[in-house]
Amino acid sequence: MSSLVLHDESEWIFNVDSPALLTDYTRSALDIPALIEHFGSVSIDEVLYNGRYVFDVILTISAELSRKRIEPVNPVEVLKSKTAIRNSEFMQALLKDPYSVDIRFVFNTDESYSNIGLWAHRSLLSRYKPFADLIHEASSESSAQTSSCNDAQDVINAEMLTIPLSDISPGTLCVLLRYIYTGEINRTVDTSLHAISMTDSALVMKGIAGRPARFVRWSPMDKDSPWRLKDVTWEELLRVSGRFGVLDLQQHCEDAVIAAMDTSNAVEVLFTIGSTFDKVRDAAMDFIVDKMGSVVLKDTRPFAAYKNHPDAFDFLVELLERRAPKAAVIDGV
Protein backbone atom coordinates (compact mmCIF):
# COMPACT_ATOMS: atom_id res chain seq x y z
CA MET A 1 0.00 0.00 0.00
CA SER A 2 1.35 3.43 -0.96
CA SER A 3 0.28 6.90 0.13
CA LEU A 4 -0.14 9.88 -2.16
CA VAL A 5 0.02 13.49 -0.99
CA LEU A 6 -1.26 16.19 -3.34
CA HIS A 7 -0.14 19.73 -2.44
CA ASP A 8 -2.14 22.69 -3.70
CA GLU A 9 -4.12 25.35 -1.83
CA SER A 10 -5.43 22.34 0.12
CA GLU A 11 -4.02 18.87 0.85
CA TRP A 12 -5.40 15.47 -0.09
CA ILE A 13 -4.27 12.02 1.06
CA PHE A 14 -5.12 8.90 -0.99
CA ASN A 15 -4.70 5.15 -0.87
CA VAL A 16 -2.84 4.07 -4.00
CA ASP A 17 -2.58 0.39 -4.95
CA SER A 18 -0.18 1.09 -7.77
CA PRO A 19 1.64 4.37 -8.40
CA ALA A 20 1.61 3.51 -12.11
CA LEU A 21 -2.11 4.22 -12.16
CA LEU A 22 -1.31 7.93 -11.71
CA THR A 23 0.58 8.35 -14.97
CA ASP A 24 -2.52 9.56 -16.81
CA TYR A 25 -2.97 12.58 -14.50
CA THR A 26 -1.09 15.77 -15.38
CA ARG A 27 -0.36 18.87 -13.38
CA SER A 28 -2.70 20.93 -15.54
CA ALA A 29 -5.66 18.58 -15.37
CA LEU A 30 -5.88 17.05 -11.92
CA ASP A 31 -9.43 15.89 -11.27
CA ILE A 32 -9.64 15.88 -7.47
CA PRO A 33 -13.13 14.29 -7.27
CA ALA A 34 -12.03 11.52 -9.66
CA LEU A 35 -8.90 10.84 -7.59
CA ILE A 36 -10.95 10.60 -4.42
CA GLU A 37 -13.48 8.27 -6.07
CA HIS A 38 -10.80 6.06 -7.62
CA PHE A 39 -8.30 5.77 -4.78
CA GLY A 40 -10.31 6.66 -1.70
CA SER A 41 -9.14 9.18 0.91
CA VAL A 42 -7.47 8.50 4.26
CA SER A 43 -6.85 10.62 7.33
CA ILE A 44 -3.74 12.75 7.18
CA ASP A 45 -2.79 11.46 10.62
CA GLU A 46 -2.20 8.03 9.08
CA VAL A 47 0.64 9.29 6.91
CA LEU A 48 2.31 11.53 9.48
CA TYR A 49 5.14 10.47 11.75
CA ASN A 50 6.52 13.04 14.21
CA GLY A 51 5.01 15.82 12.12
CA ARG A 52 6.56 14.59 8.86
CA TYR A 53 4.97 12.90 5.86
CA VAL A 54 5.55 9.20 5.23
CA PHE A 55 4.74 8.87 1.52
CA ASP A 56 5.72 7.08 -1.67
CA VAL A 57 4.30 9.35 -4.39
CA ILE A 58 3.90 13.13 -4.48
CA LEU A 59 2.04 15.32 -6.94
CA THR A 60 2.78 18.99 -6.39
CA ILE A 61 2.71 22.37 -8.11
CA SER A 62 5.21 23.79 -5.59
CA ALA A 63 8.81 24.53 -6.61
CA GLU A 64 10.04 23.05 -3.33
CA LEU A 65 8.53 20.47 -1.03
CA SER A 66 9.57 19.52 2.48
CA ARG A 67 8.73 16.25 4.20
CA LYS A 68 7.62 18.37 7.15
CA ARG A 69 3.88 19.06 7.25
CA ILE A 70 3.10 22.73 6.67
CA GLU A 71 -0.38 24.02 7.38
CA PRO A 72 -2.06 25.40 4.24
CA VAL A 73 -1.85 29.17 4.09
CA ASN A 74 -5.10 31.09 4.16
CA PRO A 75 -4.67 33.95 1.65
CA VAL A 76 -7.33 36.01 3.44
CA GLU A 77 -5.37 35.85 6.70
CA VAL A 78 -2.16 36.79 4.88
CA LEU A 79 -3.89 39.82 3.37
CA LYS A 80 -5.24 40.84 6.77
CA SER A 81 -1.76 40.55 8.28
CA LYS A 82 -0.15 42.65 5.55
CA THR A 83 -2.91 45.23 5.82
CA ALA A 84 -2.47 45.41 9.60
CA ILE A 85 1.29 45.99 9.16
CA ARG A 86 0.67 48.77 6.63
CA ASN A 87 -1.92 50.36 8.90
CA SER A 88 0.47 50.22 11.85
CA GLU A 89 3.25 51.84 9.85
CA PHE A 90 0.86 54.56 8.68
CA MET A 91 -0.33 55.28 12.22
CA GLN A 92 3.25 55.45 13.50
CA ALA A 93 4.04 58.03 10.82
CA LEU A 94 0.87 59.96 11.60
CA LEU A 95 1.71 60.06 15.32
CA LYS A 96 4.78 62.20 14.67
CA ASP A 97 3.65 64.08 11.56
CA PRO A 98 3.79 67.83 12.32
CA TYR A 99 1.93 68.80 9.16
CA SER A 100 -1.42 67.18 9.94
CA VAL A 101 -1.81 67.74 13.70
CA ASP A 102 -4.52 70.12 14.87
CA ILE A 103 -4.54 69.95 18.67
CA ARG A 104 -1.82 70.71 21.19
CA PHE A 105 -1.63 69.67 24.85
CA VAL A 106 0.43 71.78 27.26
CA PHE A 107 1.40 70.75 30.78
CA ASN A 108 1.46 72.48 34.15
CA THR A 109 2.49 69.44 36.18
CA ASP A 110 6.22 70.17 36.06
CA GLU A 111 7.93 73.52 35.38
CA SER A 112 10.66 71.64 33.53
CA TYR A 113 8.15 70.76 30.82
CA SER A 114 6.05 73.92 30.85
CA ASN A 115 7.36 74.88 27.40
CA ILE A 116 6.44 71.53 25.80
CA GLY A 117 3.49 71.08 23.48
CA LEU A 118 2.40 67.53 22.59
CA TRP A 119 0.40 67.42 19.36
CA ALA A 120 -2.26 65.04 18.09
CA HIS A 121 -5.31 64.74 15.83
CA ARG A 122 -8.80 65.66 16.98
CA SER A 123 -10.46 63.16 14.65
CA LEU A 124 -8.64 60.24 16.30
CA LEU A 125 -9.01 61.35 19.90
CA SER A 126 -12.69 62.18 19.47
CA ARG A 127 -13.45 58.45 19.26
CA TYR A 128 -13.23 58.52 23.05
CA LYS A 129 -15.99 60.52 24.70
CA PRO A 130 -13.87 62.15 27.44
CA PHE A 131 -11.48 63.42 24.77
CA ALA A 132 -14.40 64.52 22.59
CA ASP A 133 -15.91 66.48 25.48
CA LEU A 134 -12.57 68.12 26.26
CA ILE A 135 -12.04 69.07 22.62
CA HIS A 136 -15.59 70.41 22.31
CA GLU A 137 -15.14 72.58 25.39
CA ALA A 138 -11.80 73.95 24.17
CA SER A 139 -13.20 74.55 20.70
CA SER A 140 -16.19 76.44 22.09
CA GLU A 141 -13.93 78.66 24.19
CA SER A 142 -11.64 79.30 21.24
CA SER A 143 -14.58 80.18 18.97
CA ALA A 144 -15.95 82.62 21.54
CA GLN A 145 -12.59 84.36 21.82
CA THR A 146 -12.23 84.79 18.04
CA SER A 147 -15.85 85.31 16.98
CA SER A 148 -15.43 89.07 16.68
CA CYS A 149 -12.08 88.89 14.87
CA ASN A 150 -11.74 88.72 11.07
CA ASP A 151 -7.98 88.43 10.82
CA ALA A 152 -7.01 85.31 8.83
CA GLN A 153 -4.04 84.56 11.05
CA ASP A 154 -6.24 84.55 14.15
CA VAL A 155 -8.67 82.18 12.41
CA ILE A 156 -5.99 79.62 11.62
CA ASN A 157 -4.55 79.95 15.13
CA ALA A 158 -8.01 79.26 16.53
CA GLU A 159 -8.24 76.04 14.51
CA MET A 160 -5.07 74.74 16.16
CA LEU A 161 -6.56 74.05 19.58
CA THR A 162 -4.48 74.22 22.74
CA ILE A 163 -5.62 72.27 25.80
CA PRO A 164 -3.83 72.71 29.16
CA LEU A 165 -3.49 69.65 31.41
CA SER A 166 -2.67 70.22 35.06
CA ASP A 167 -2.63 66.66 36.39
CA ILE A 168 -1.04 64.55 33.61
CA SER A 169 2.64 64.41 32.76
CA PRO A 170 3.78 64.70 29.13
CA GLY A 171 5.36 61.24 29.34
CA THR A 172 2.10 59.61 30.44
CA LEU A 173 0.17 61.25 27.61
CA CYS A 174 2.88 60.17 25.13
CA VAL A 175 2.39 56.52 26.15
CA LEU A 176 -1.40 56.86 25.93
CA LEU A 177 -1.27 58.46 22.48
CA ARG A 178 1.10 55.80 21.20
CA TYR A 179 -1.38 53.14 22.28
CA ILE A 180 -4.35 54.96 20.73
CA TYR A 181 -2.53 55.36 17.41
CA THR A 182 -0.66 52.05 17.13
CA GLY A 183 -1.94 49.67 19.80
CA GLU A 184 1.57 49.42 21.27
CA ILE A 185 2.31 49.65 25.00
CA ASN A 186 5.76 50.92 25.86
CA ARG A 187 6.19 52.74 29.17
CA THR A 188 9.63 54.01 28.13
CA VAL A 189 8.96 57.25 26.25
CA ASP A 190 10.69 57.78 22.92
CA THR A 191 10.00 61.44 22.15
CA SER A 192 11.22 61.04 18.57
CA LEU A 193 7.99 59.14 17.85
CA HIS A 194 5.80 62.15 18.68
CA ALA A 195 5.08 65.63 17.36
CA ILE A 196 6.42 67.80 20.18
CA SER A 197 6.90 71.56 20.02
CA MET A 198 9.03 73.83 22.18
CA THR A 199 9.56 77.57 22.49
CA ASP A 200 13.24 77.55 21.55
CA SER A 201 13.30 75.90 18.14
CA ALA A 202 11.94 77.19 14.85
CA LEU A 203 10.31 75.52 11.88
CA VAL A 204 7.97 77.08 9.40
CA MET A 205 4.79 75.06 9.06
CA LYS A 206 2.70 76.15 6.11
CA GLY A 207 -1.02 76.29 6.55
CA ILE A 208 -3.68 75.20 4.12
CA ALA A 209 -3.19 76.55 0.59
CA GLY A 210 -4.18 80.18 0.32
CA ARG A 211 -3.70 80.90 3.99
CA PRO A 212 -0.74 82.61 5.64
CA ALA A 213 2.29 80.57 6.68
CA ARG A 214 2.18 79.63 10.31
CA PHE A 215 5.18 79.31 12.59
CA VAL A 216 5.34 76.28 14.84
CA ARG A 217 8.46 75.63 16.87
CA TRP A 218 9.20 71.93 16.84
CA SER A 219 11.26 70.07 19.37
CA PRO A 220 14.62 68.55 18.43
CA MET A 221 14.23 65.99 21.22
CA ASP A 222 15.02 62.36 20.56
CA LYS A 223 15.37 59.25 22.71
CA ASP A 224 18.94 60.25 23.64
CA SER A 225 17.95 63.71 24.86
CA PRO A 226 19.74 64.58 28.13
CA TRP A 227 16.41 65.58 29.68
CA ARG A 228 14.32 62.73 28.26
CA LEU A 229 10.93 62.07 29.78
CA LYS A 230 10.92 59.57 32.62
CA ASP A 231 9.37 56.14 32.29
CA VAL A 232 5.67 55.85 33.07
CA THR A 233 4.36 53.56 35.82
CA TRP A 234 1.45 51.17 35.38
CA GLU A 235 -0.45 53.18 37.98
CA GLU A 236 -0.01 56.43 36.01
CA LEU A 237 -1.05 54.76 32.78
CA LEU A 238 -4.07 53.17 34.48
CA ARG A 239 -5.31 56.54 35.75
CA VAL A 240 -5.01 58.28 32.39
CA SER A 241 -6.54 55.40 30.42
CA GLY A 242 -9.45 55.30 32.85
CA ARG A 243 -9.88 59.06 32.69
CA PHE A 244 -10.11 59.13 28.90
CA GLY A 245 -12.11 55.92 28.49
CA VAL A 246 -9.48 53.79 26.73
CA LEU A 247 -11.02 50.67 28.23
CA ASP A 248 -8.86 47.96 26.64
CA LEU A 249 -5.70 49.68 27.85
CA GLN A 250 -7.32 50.23 31.26
CA GLN A 251 -7.97 46.50 31.63
CA HIS A 252 -4.38 45.69 30.71
CA CYS A 253 -3.08 48.20 33.26
CA GLU A 254 -5.38 46.85 35.97
CA ASP A 255 -3.99 43.36 35.44
CA ALA A 256 -0.42 44.70 35.55
CA VAL A 257 -1.02 46.61 38.80
CA ILE A 258 -2.61 43.56 40.41
CA ALA A 259 0.23 41.29 39.25
CA ALA A 260 2.81 43.63 40.80
CA MET A 261 1.05 43.79 44.17
CA ASP A 262 2.91 42.43 47.21
CA THR A 263 2.92 42.78 50.98
CA SER A 264 4.88 46.02 50.83
CA ASN A 265 2.49 47.92 48.55
CA ALA A 266 -0.94 46.27 48.88
CA VAL A 267 -2.32 48.89 51.28
CA GLU A 268 -1.01 51.73 49.11
CA VAL A 269 -2.55 50.15 46.00
CA LEU A 270 -5.87 49.78 47.81
CA PHE A 271 -6.11 53.44 48.79
CA THR A 272 -4.43 55.14 45.82
CA ILE A 273 -5.78 52.98 42.97
CA GLY A 274 -8.56 50.88 44.49
CA SER A 275 -10.62 53.93 45.40
CA THR A 276 -11.14 54.53 41.66
CA PHE A 277 -10.92 51.10 40.06
CA ASP A 278 -13.16 48.38 41.49
CA LYS A 279 -11.21 45.47 39.99
CA VAL A 280 -8.01 46.64 41.70
CA ARG A 281 -9.88 47.32 44.96
CA ASP A 282 -11.30 43.80 45.11
CA ALA A 283 -7.93 42.24 44.32
CA ALA A 284 -6.18 44.37 46.97
CA MET A 285 -8.85 43.53 49.54
CA ASP A 286 -8.47 39.80 48.92
CA PHE A 287 -4.68 40.06 49.01
CA ILE A 288 -4.63 41.94 52.32
CA VAL A 289 -7.15 39.57 53.92
CA ASP A 290 -5.22 36.49 52.79
CA LYS A 291 -1.84 37.86 53.91
CA MET A 292 -2.87 40.05 56.82
CA GLY A 293 -0.08 38.71 59.03
CA SER A 294 2.57 39.73 56.50
CA VAL A 295 0.97 43.04 55.54
CA VAL A 296 0.49 44.24 59.11
CA LEU A 297 3.74 43.35 60.81
CA LYS A 298 4.53 43.99 64.47
CA ASP A 299 5.22 47.66 65.22
CA THR A 300 4.00 48.73 61.77
CA ARG A 301 0.92 50.79 60.97
CA PRO A 302 0.44 50.57 57.20
CA PHE A 303 -3.06 52.08 57.39
CA ALA A 304 -2.07 55.11 59.44
CA ALA A 305 -1.00 57.15 56.42
CA TYR A 306 -4.53 56.90 55.04
CA LYS A 307 -6.55 57.70 58.14
CA ASN A 308 -7.88 60.88 56.50
CA HIS A 309 -8.63 59.19 53.21
CA PRO A 310 -12.33 59.63 52.30
CA ASP A 311 -12.72 55.86 51.86
CA ALA A 312 -10.73 54.87 54.95
CA PHE A 313 -13.72 53.91 57.11
CA ASP A 314 -15.52 51.97 54.36
CA PHE A 315 -12.36 50.12 53.36
CA LEU A 316 -11.51 49.09 56.92
CA VAL A 317 -15.07 47.89 57.56
CA GLU A 318 -15.03 45.83 54.37
CA LEU A 319 -11.65 44.34 55.26
CA LEU A 320 -12.99 43.27 58.65
CA GLU A 321 -16.09 41.76 57.04
CA ARG A 322 -13.99 39.80 54.57
CA ARG A 323 -11.62 38.73 57.30
CA ALA A 324 -14.30 37.51 59.70
CA PRO A 325 -15.10 34.16 57.99
CA LYS A 326 -11.40 33.31 57.71
CA ALA A 327 -10.82 34.19 61.36
CA ALA A 328 -13.75 31.96 62.37
CA VAL A 329 -12.24 29.01 60.51
CA ILE A 330 -8.86 29.58 62.16
CA ASP A 331 -10.48 29.73 65.60
CA GLY A 332 -12.39 26.53 64.89
CA VAL A 333 -15.81 28.15 65.09
TrEMBL record:
<protein>
    <recommendedName>
        <fullName>BTB domain-containing protein</fullName>
    </recommendedName>
</protein>
<feature type="domain" description="BTB">
    <location>
        <begin position="101"/>
        <end position="189"/>
    </location>
</feature>
<dbReference type="InterPro" id="IPR000210">
    <property type="entry name" value="BTB/POZ_dom"/>
</dbReference>
<dbReference type="InterPro" id="IPR011333">
    <property type="entry name" value="SKP1/BTB/POZ_sf"/>
</dbReference>
